[in-house]
Amino acid sequence: MRRILGKLIEDRASLLGLVIIVLLVLAAVLAPFLATHPADVAEFHTARRLTPPGAENWLGTDRMGSDIYSRLLFGARITITIAFTAIFVAVVIGVPIGLIAGYYEGLGSDLLMRVSDIFLAVPQIVLAIAIAQTLGPSIENVILALSATYWPFWARLVFAETRSCKKEPFVEAAIALGCSPWRVMVLHILPSISSSIIVRTTIGMGGTILTAATLGFLGLGPPPPTPEWGRTIAESREFLPMAWWYAAFPGLAIFLVVMGFNLLGDGLRDVLDPRLRRASRGR
Amino acid sequence: MKTVVLVVNRLAWFVPTLLGLLAIVFFISHVVPADPAAFVAGENATPETIAAIRARLGLDQPLHIQFWRYLQSIVEGDFGRSIYTGRPIAEDLLDRLPATLELTLVTVVVATLVGVPLGVISALRRNSWLDHGLRVITIAGLAIASFWFAILLQLLFSMRLGWTPLGGRVEGWGPEQITGFYMIDALLLQDHEILLDALQHMVLPVITLAVPATATIVRFTRAGVLDALQSNYVLYETAMGYPRRLVIWKYVLRNALIGTVTQIGLIFGILLAGAVVVEAVFDWPGLGTFAVNSILSSDYNAVMGFTVVVGTMFIVVNLLVDILHGVIDPREAR
Fold first, then answer.
1. Least CB–CB distance from A278: residue in B230, B269, B318
2. Residue B315: its pLDDT value, please?
3. Could you report the per-residue pLDDT of A78-120, keeping only the tens digit for each?
4. Interface residue A123 vs chain B (CB under 8 A)
5. What part of A 199-228 touches B (C-beta under 8 Å)?
6. Taking the model in full, what pTM does it have?
7. How many CB contacts within 8 angstroms connect chain A with chain B?
8. Per-position DSSP letters for chain A, written without gaps between them
């Protein structure tokens, strides 16, 4: 663990990614203390609407005169809630399905993988739109739409890794010693494929945040006055020529966070997955 | 012979995948809502109206019969009518298909022309400042929310500088409809004014869509070239004293680009998905704008029709790529 962390910190790009993610979590947790106008999530000051960035409102104000900086901080909470919960659910569904389908060979396994292939055969955002549209706009439904469309990524990955891991001598030895299938899967196979799962999960976080923001932009995210970043950008379009800050900063926040996860995922892959390092970095 | 087996094999998977897609959409549209009839009827409907709608939509039938009916109507090209405009959804989708295809195809061409050379250079100069710079740029390109990027481009180039139009496909009416692809139609009609206008309208949407697509192509091309460079045949050819230029152009690139061809399917998917929001921002009259308008007016039949059409297109493209891959790379055909 210390070795992995050390290598990550050596790589400047991954370190930057890690720093961004830590800052995001801190911003979300400490939002009420960091915000200059914590009440502005729900409060309006129409006299100050569309004020440019300045000493009073660091990143300017929106159409209601609310402080954009403060709303962005509270928006980080929504982003974190949606992304972490959706990915957690996707992993909890996908990993066991991949493990079981990979460990047992038969019609049931083929069927499980075929179902995940069908989900993968459609662009994620399109299915997520269909689901979120049917269920109606709310945080819970965005999470549901995202986890329902993202679990096959983990099922596919874990399936392939389990199939190849099953042929390793240490797994055969464990089976020969009389370990139960559950014990083999959870205590022998899962730990040795965990690095690919961690890499996939980190990169998946970036993608999930982008998809969630897109749903928000389309009006399928949590309803107003929630300070969700994607929805804020959609609101800003009407005032675009005169209030550039309104659209610019929420998008910058999305970009930085997704970039953070992508950088960290890229670095983690180099450290954790020596087979891929050859092709991707060549160190 | 192997190729025929491959094609038949892939075609055999096509039907179950398509059925699976329809089953998912059916599930989302018929099972997930607590009461689809109430959903269709709206908020102020009386119980009698809801019951009438339920009977009209066949929702009082068992699920497997409903699914069978749904399949029948899809096969007949009937996607139902828009709850909002009352027009047949299949017709609307068909009208808008050429606009989206034109946009995505031009983007694929642009992304390939830019991405492949950059990926090759990046791999040949591994660990140079250029390689590191491209790594950061491609990661950034995949992190940008396309709807945000589109809005910023619009603000800078259309509103501030006035270089490009704000949105749409052309000023006023398009060229006389022949193929529905404005650029081809303008060329066929020899109308240079419309051709130039169409090109101008295309610049910003294509740039927006091309960013993530190009980043993906660069990364895959780079990995493919690096893989080929480290293979035994390249080592052998270098040891035999082949000039490096010949080794790279004749052996490395040819093998590395096979992988890139496969990525085009994936990229087409990224583009179809990206088109949803990019079209909406640039008011591009394609499937994406249709989907967004349908979402905004809660036109739920239309959203499902869009899902089926785009999903089917994606599956068909992947099928074609799979077959193409098998044809150009004999190792795959086994």
1. B230
2. 83
3. 999 999 999 999 999 999 999 999 999 888 888 888 888 888 8
4. yes
5. 206, 210, 213-214, 217-220
6. 0.88
7. 150
8. -HHHHHHHHHSHHHHHHHHHHHHHHHHHHTHHHH-SSGGGGT---GGGTTPPS-SSSTT-B-TTS-BHHHHHHHHHHHHHHHHHHHHHHHHHHHHHHHHHHHHS-SHHHHHHHHHHHHHHTS-HHHHHHHHHHHH-SSHHHHHHHHHHHHHHHHHHHHHHHHHHHTTSHHHHHHHHTT--HHHIIIIIIHHHHHHHHHHHHHHHHHHHHHHHHHHHHTT-SSPTT---HHHHHHHHGGGTTT-HHHHHHHHHHHHHHHHHHHHHHHHHHHHH-HHHHHHHT--
Q: Give the A window 163-202 contacts with B, CB below 8 Å.
A: none
| B292 closest CB neighbour out of A218, A248, A251 | A218
Give the mean pLDDT per block of 10 residues along chain B (334 residues).
76 84 83 66 75 76 84 84 82 90 92 93 90 91 93 91 86 77 82 86 94 92 89 89 87 82 76 86 91 82 86 83 76 56
Summarize pLDDT for A161-190 with one digit per residue, the tens: 999 898 889 999 999 999 999 999 999 999
Residue to test with chain B: of A129, A135, A258, most B Cβ within 10 A: A129
Chain B residues with CB inside 8 Å of A121's CB? 17, 20-21, 311, 314-315, 318
Rounded average pLDDT over A58-64: 85
Q: Which of 35-54 (A) contact B at CB < 8 A?
A: none
A235: left (phi over 0), alpha (psi -120 to 50) or beta: alpha
A120 touches chain B (CB under 8 A): no
The per-residue pLDDT for A283 is 30
Distance CA B97, CA B9 (A): 29
The reported pLDDT for the residue numbered A1 is: 67
Q: What are the chain B neighbours of A217 within 8 Å (beta carbons)?
A: 145, 147, 277
- Give the pLDDT of residue A101: 93
| Whether the Cβ atoms of residue B89 and residue B80 lie closer than 8 Å to each other | yes
* Contacting residues of B for A127, CB less than 8 Å apart: 24, 307, 311
B/e letters for A210-244, b = 16+ CB within 10 Å, e = fewer, are bbbbbbbbbbbbbeeebbbbbbbbbbbbeebeebb
